[in-house]
Structure prediction request, 349 residues.
Amino acid sequence: MGLFRWNLLPRALLNNDIIFKLVFSEKIRLKILDCTPAGIYEAVAILDQGGLLGLPTETVYGLAADARNESALQRIFQTKGRPADHPLIVHIGNPEELGQWVQDVPPLAEDLIQNFWPGPLTLILPARSDVSRWVTGGQSKVAVRCPALEATQSVLKTLGRGVCAPSANRFGRISPTTAQHVLADLGTSIEAILDAGPCRFGLESTIVDLSVEPAVILRPGALAVEQIAQISGYMPQILKRAQNTRTSGLLDKHYAPRKPVQLCSTSQLQDPDLLSSAVYSEAVILSIVRPACPGLWLEMPVEADQYAQQLYDALRQADASDKPLIVIESPPQQPQWLAIHDRIERASR
Ligand code: TXA
Ligand code: MG
Prediction:
């Protein structure tokens, strides 16, 4: 690892092919594991020995460590550059393990688990006293989720313990939705990445805080809020801002590229007079409609689920381009676009 210096490479060279060739030429120690029984076995051994693993899930890739190993948990914070008091989500392979982490499972939690686990839903509940402060950020509650992806299930069930896994990106940046993204962000500082291909949802799990009454949504995500409302019998309030800044996904600026991001309307994009300015010719434009103004167009899907699946990759491409500005057409306002609006608004602040 010693001789390898990312910052000596011209940015244009940092495309996926070249990154993978560097890995395979063994200039860095990191292993890319596939989802064969041997790959899963090695991934589990790394976690068991206190290592860090790029773990695929159906939402985004996580930076995984044994949730009962405090030195492994500390490495998560160092690797991400994340403040030490920001709590982590515990990932479990089987809903029955929830009792190892929380004091009590209220009826609404049971109903949500029945309907949506395994899946992209994170529940926040009062924590048992033996849960590490590295997991809870020193709070009295803990976040737990049971991921659905088969490879994640295999890892968690074979390990037989909970695993903490924040998104595998540097703090405040764009979550990774492919193994290549994890490699580009954290490749020199973790042991391995389990490569399960691109994530199905591409947006993080929906987080519901059940430690308060009535329940509130801390982060809209891959599971629609309406589906939760059908089970709870009421539409939970969606918190817009962190009342305490330890819910990092609620920070004003989060999920952010390095370059400035501006939002604009569809009509602005189609008005050549408004957007003929030199500013936009220097932009990468993420939009469903073809823009009438100059600039580099990244065409986005019309359907919300496909848009979500591609959004983070598109933002990464825009960030890696030679254009200094990212412009995003504000998508439709229907409910299925809620989590996408949340992310692009935070990226643009
Ligand atoms: O889809 C996901 O949830 C992904 C995959 C890898 O599972 N994980 C993920 O983790 O997005 P992370 O750490 O990047 O985002 C979790 C969010 C953070 O904003 C964190 O502050 C919040 O959940 N959180 C975790 N535990 C909490 C707690 N006890 N109370 C309040 N917020 C909590
Ligand atoms: Mg994150």
The pocket of magnesium ion (ligand 2) is lined by residues 166-167, 175 (CB under 6 Å). The chain has two domains: 6-238, 261-347. The mean pLDDT is 89.
